């Protein structure tokens, strides 16, 4: 099976090396052979998943690499059959990531996005930021005005972006109440709350909530508009 560089024998060698000893160079090479910068993955990437899962209990780099590979599984790689064969392994990655998230690690968001991808929520995996200072640009579904949505630690608003004056005509966002979230939204939110990620949870409530268009005063669902503009195929 080919890796990202078209080689077939290098990945098995490297996997053997990292299994035998702590080999930073081999991990680095595995990283770019299994997951090319820019997001391409190949057959060898999915074929390596069982070994990465096996290594993950002793080496966090294996879990992180498996997560990165699965985050790219939505793209075009021609390996759908292989991926379907790996369903059991993917379920193991899900358990590993969930356990890791419960430990409240410093790189929480990266693992959270990996878990969303493992659950085939690719659009969410690509759309979520850390909500410390995030902006989403979308068109009002009623009047077509370009609306800027800000979801940050201190400011959460919809506005019209003026290149000289900044964000003007600001309106407060209307966060979704947790009880009214969709199944996926609820699961994302509850996981963040469970793990003490208050900023992330609040950001998810905002993104899944509603905004007022400063131009025509209509109110619309932020995620609906953002997702339909950004990810028409996966939505
Ligand atoms: Zn409008």
Keywords summarizing the entry:
single chain, 235 residues, alpha+beta, 4-stranded antiparallel β-sheet, 12 helices, 6 strands, 14% strand, elongated, binds zinc ion
How many domains? The number is 2
Number of strands: 6
Could you say which structural class the secondary elements and strand pairing correspond to? alpha+beta
User: What does the radius of gyration come to?
Assistant: 20 Å
The first-to-last residue Cα distance is 31 Å
Strand order of the largest sheet: 1-2-3-4
**What multimeric state do the chains show?**
single chain
Which sheet architecture does the biggest sheet show?
A: 4 strands, antiparallel
Low-confidence stretches: none
Bound small molecules, deduplicated: zinc ion
Mean pLDDT: 90
Report the order of strands and helices. HHHHHHHHHEEEEHHEEH
Principal-axes shape call = elongated
How much helix, percentage-wise, in residues? 40-55%
Number of separate helices: 12
The percent range for strand residues is 5-15%
Describe this protein's structure.
The mean pLDDT is 90. The strands form 2 sheets. A 4-stranded antiparallel β-sheet has the order 1-2-3-4, with helices on one face. The two termini are 31 Å apart. 50% of the residues lie in helices and 14% in strands. α4 packs parallel to α7, α5 (60-71) packs across α8 and α7 (87-102) runs antiparallel to α8 (108-118). It is built from 12 helices and 6 strands. With 235 residues, it is an alpha+beta fold. It is elongated, with a radius of gyration of 20 Å. Residues 140, 142-143, 145, 213, 215-216, 218 line the site of zinc ion (ZN).
């Amino acid at each position: 099976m080919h890796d990202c560089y078209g080689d077939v024998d290098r990945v098995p060698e490297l996997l053997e090396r990292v299994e035998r000893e702590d080999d930073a160079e081999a991990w680095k090479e595995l990283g770019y052979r299994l997951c090319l910068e820019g997001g391409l993955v190949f057959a060898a990437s999915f074929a390596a998943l069982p070994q990465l899962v096996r290594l993950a209990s002793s080496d966090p780099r294996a879990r992180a690499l498996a997560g990165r590979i699965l985050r790219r599984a939505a793209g075009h790689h021609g390996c759908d059959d292989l991926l379907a064969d790996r369903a059991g392994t993917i379920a193991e990655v899900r358990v590993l990531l969930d356990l890791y998230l419960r430990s409240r690690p410093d790189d929480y968001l990266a693992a959270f996005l990996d878990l969303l991808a493992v659950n085939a929520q690719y659009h969410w995996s690509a759309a979520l930021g850390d909500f410390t200072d995030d902006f989403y640009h979308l068109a009002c579904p009623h009047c077509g005005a370009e609306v800027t949505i800000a979801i940050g630690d201190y400011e959460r608003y919809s506005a019209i972006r003026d290149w000289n004056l900044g964000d003007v005509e600001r309106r407060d966002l209307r966060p979704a109440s947790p009880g009214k979230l969709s199944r996926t939204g609820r699961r994302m939110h509850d996981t963040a709350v469970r793990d003490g990620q208050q900023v992330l949870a609040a950001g998810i409530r905002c993104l899944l909530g509603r905004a007022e268009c400063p131009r025509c005063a209509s109110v619309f669902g932020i995620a609906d508009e953002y997702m339909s503009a950004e990810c028409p195929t996966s939505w």
